[in-house]
Each structure stands twice: as C-alpha cells, then as structure tokens.
Amino acid sequence: MNVRILATGSSGNCSVIDNKIVIDLGITIKTYQSYNLNDIEAVVITHPHGDHMKLPLVRRLLKDGMKMYLPSLVISAIVSEGKIDVNSLIAQGQIVVMESQQTFQIGDLSITPHPQKHHDIVNYALVVEKGDKRLLYATDLDTIEPSDMGVGLLDLGTFDVIMLEGNYDEVYLREYIEYMVSLVPSESSPDLLTDGELESWVRANYRHLPQDISRNAFRAIQNRRHLSKQQARAYATTHLRPGGTYYEIHRSSMFYQAPEDWYQED
C-alpha cells in the first residue's frame, strides 16, 4: 500500500493511503487543495481533536460530495457547529457512522476501527487491509494495552506498514520535568518521585515556576497522554512483518528528542 503523509504532529494530521482514502483532516482548506487529491474516494476521521479534524475543511469536502466515515464524537462536533444537516447526509449515505470494530469497504481496501484510550475520549486506530497486506494507523494513544475505553494494539496482529505515534523521548521528558521541579524549593528530590507524583507536582506548582519554564509545564505532562518513541519502536519490533515499513508519526516538536546542548556539562 502506498502511503503519503501530508501532515503529522500537534499542528495537524492528514495522510493518504493508496491515493484512495484520506485519514484525518487536521489541515486547512488551502493546504488540502495544494495536493493532487482528485481520486480520493472517502475520508476517515479518527477523533474530534482540532489537529485531526478542521471543521472548515470537513464542511467544504462534504459540500463537494465527499463520502466520510466518522465516529460519533466527530459527528457530534459537526452537529454542534450547526452549519450542516448531518442527519440528511447520514440518510443519503454520504456520512457513515463508524462503529467500533465493524469493518467497512472503500474500493479494494477494508478498514476496521479499533477504539483506543486517549485521556478522556475514545480515539480510533485503523487497520487497513488490501489482500494479504495490512496497515496500522494509530496516533493519540495513552497506552497500547487494553483499557476501559479501548482494546489496545497488542492483539491486532502483524503488519506490512505501521504508522504509529512516537511522540516523545521518555528519558528527556522525565529529565525536563525533574528540572522544572528543581527550580522550586521542595522537600522531595525530584529523582525520587514517581511519574505520577511528578505530574501532580507540576499541576500544583507550575505557577511558581519561572515564566519561560511555566509555559511548557502543562505541555510536558500532557505529552504523557501519547506514546513515547520507545514504546512505539518496541511495538514495531514485535508487530512489523519482515521487510515492512515503519513510520514514526505525531512527533512532539519539543520533547521528541533532547536539544543538542541538554547533556553538555557546565
């Protein structure tokens, strides 16, 4: 299967598979129109966050007649905006309500959405199959393990193509949060705190941090709502078929890797 990644990361996500389906619409109308996407048969959106679903682009494509497969949370967001008669488009079959683990067909591609936990909402990982070839697309995950909100990724089988979020570097993110803690007098040494305790500390004390550090305090702990690149690579090692291709997507612009001078001694 051919893969084109038009955008990935917190600023926007949009990918094309086999020049046939678009996954996520987290880009502007102008950016979308700058690509040659005349042969697209349908759009699939994984969840309603703005970097995966820009409503102006969704509206434009729906008005142009594009077929869309959408989870209920995305449909609710479109309904709340009040600019499109969603029920009419569902009745006409232009919008299809995407059901958990229910396979649908777009041309010669079979797509199965698998629910995943992303903080307080369900996000969908997509398994795309074409003959005996299999592709996994998964971003915005708290965990690859099963949870009360999703099935996880562990039992989805092996793949010829894995497009998986590898958002941050575990070592650097932990060191950065410890550094923030060290800037404020505390009875506890930051290196003795668990990850959960560090997160609680940041939420309680970020206002006391220097301004240039406090701006990134919440951003640092919120990155834990994503998969680290270590987790993603470990998964790919065990789930990528021989000769397969791994795309590490949705990288944090700040915490994917440490700056070059981070480990330099004074």
How would you summarize what this structure contains?
The chain is of the alpha/beta class and 266 residues long. The protein has helices spanning 29-33, 55-63, 72-81, 86-92, 170-182, 195-205, 211-214, 217-222, 229-239, and strands at residues 3-7, 14-17, 21-23, 42-44, 67-70, 95-97, 104-106, 109-118, 121-130, 133-138, 159-165, 240-249. The chain has two domains: 3-168 and 228-249, Metallo-beta-lactamase, Chain A (4-Layer Sandwich); 170-224, no CATH class.
Give an account of the 3D structure.
By secondary structure, the chain is α/β, with parallel strands linked by helices. Helix content is 29%, strand content 26%. Strand 2 and strand 3 form a beta hairpin. Helix 5 packs across helix 6. It is globular, with a radius of gyration of 20 Å. The mean pLDDT is 92.
β-strand percent reads: 25-35%
CATH superfamily of the largest domain: Ribonuclease Z/Hydroxyacylglutathione hydrolase-like
Distance between the termini: 49 Å
Helix content: 25-40%
- Under CATH, the topology of the largest domain can be stated as Metallo-beta-lactamase, Chain A
What is the C-alpha radius of gyration, as a whole number of Å?
A: 20 Å
Number of helices: 9
Order of helices and strands: EEEHEHEHHEEEEEEHHHHHE
Strand count, sense and closure of the main sheet? 6 strands, mixed
CATH top level of the largest domain? Alpha Beta
The domain count comes to 2
Please provide the count of β strands: 12
pLDDT averaged residue by residue: 92
CATH level-two architecture of the largest domain: 4-Layer Sandwich
- Strands ordered across the widest β-sheet: 1-2-3-4-5-6
**Which secondary-structure class do the elements indicate?**
alpha/beta
Poorly predicted residue ranges: none
Global shape: globular
